Amino acid sequence: MCACGRKGNRMQPLYQDPGFTFRFGEDRIIPRFQLKGVPAGQRVSVYKIDPATGERMGLLAITTVGAGGWVELAEPITARAGEACIAVPEQTG
Q: DSSP letters along the chain, please?
């Protein structure tokens, strides 16, 4: 048995966050960020979201994850206090 129950259990969680959400408590300029667990070469879309509802408000960037999960942005993202964005890795296989 593994920690999640029977070995080979294919049960899916009821909810799984589709990406990595960033909320900003102060004004920031973000030239890069790290996505732990996302392999190098994976494409990522970054969207501005409504911080209260999580609704996507606009595409900010499409880029590729580099070594160590680091994402280098061609154009830095400018975020104001209270704003949020989400980085969504492209689904594979």
A: -BTTBSTT--PPPS---SSEEEE-SS-EEEEEEE-TTPPTT-EEEEEEE-TTT--EEEEEEEEE--GGGEEEEEEEEEE-TT-EEEEEEPP--
At residue 48's C-alpha, the angle toward residues 64 and 56, to 5°, is 105
Q: What is the dihedral of CA 43, 38, 68, 87, to 10 degrees?
A: 60
Its pTM surpasses 0.70: yes
What is Dmax (Cα atoms) for the chain? 47
At residue 49, does pLDDT exceed 80?
yes
